[in-house]
Amino acid sequence: MGTGYHQGPCIIWEGSFFSSHSFSHVNREAVLALMARGVDVRPVIRDDPARLPQWHLAQRFEPLRRAANRAAHEILGRVPGSVLYVRHAWPPDFARPLLPAGSCFAVMQPWEYGYIPAAWVGSIKANVDEIWAYSTFVRDAYIRSGIPPQKVVVIPCGVNPRLFNPGAAPAALTTSKGFKFLFVGGAATNRKGFDILLAAYSGEFRASDDVCLVVKDNFYGPVTEQVAQVSRLPGSPEILYIYHDLHPDAMAGIYTACNCYVQPYRAEGFGLPILEAMACGLPVITVNYGPCLDYCVPGTTYFIDAKTVKFPANRVGEFITVGTPFWAEPDVAALRAVMRYVYQHREEARAKGLAASLEALTRHTWERTAESIMGRLLHKID
Q: What is the pLDDT of residues 198-207, one digit of tens each?
């Protein structure tokens, strides 16, 4: 991987790089893709040095470790000219760093609920040159909330074809069932729709069916008891629940060990596991709503209907929003029917999965993400 600095403006990229959170995953892969193109990227790593996972020492991440900095001022004092400064972190921080003249300050910040927090608006307008949105759906939320359209740019997520592809060695899963549905993500968060999937799966299938639901959970806390309650019911279908951190490069084997990916989300900023599953050759069942429409099409996806539901007030948790937030409410009956159909039509589903892989690996890679970022570098820096 080339990491030599080229002449011209550099990118300073601030955020977490070595945690199991999706922000960290995006930061790692986007910066590595830029470094592979010879772009001068200097990471400002927010991770606690005392809590770094063992996998951060992997050879693939060596360019990040070598270039890492702990404070932006360490870099800015050594940069002779203008820079592109990217911040991608949670909680969000729209405070503008002290940058050389002609620089651009971009904040990559997903938001899944249709209208952004009202407290963000003034800071974005005053301090931020560009907001980077993972998807058209997120971009529209910012514009709907009063952020000028010229300030909002879609910078999509991607996949690494060398890791996520149909040839990835499948993980050894502790099930003897012949057909495996897969869910990946924070099952404890309502917006992921795991409760909808659990209701549909346990309602449609029985223990006698040759099927298992594999749940690869992480980060937000386990839902062990919720799964156990369903599993204890007489005749319940098999569920394999996995809650522990894996080396991020090992996730591809979880996908290729399964037959169909299911994500009936209520709200997403991008839905990266959907794209990763596609890259690994899995057909996808998901909602006909939101960010997945940037990369899912009928030829690669089994869509289920969902109705748009408004929240009772202009609030998402602690955040007061500009307008009334909304999300999708997937149809459980439709999900049951599609899961049964895929289970019974495995060859058709497999063909759709291979089409999904071709779509993901040719059009939605981290290299394409790097191209989009380099376009901003050339467009915005004097």
A: 999 999 999 9
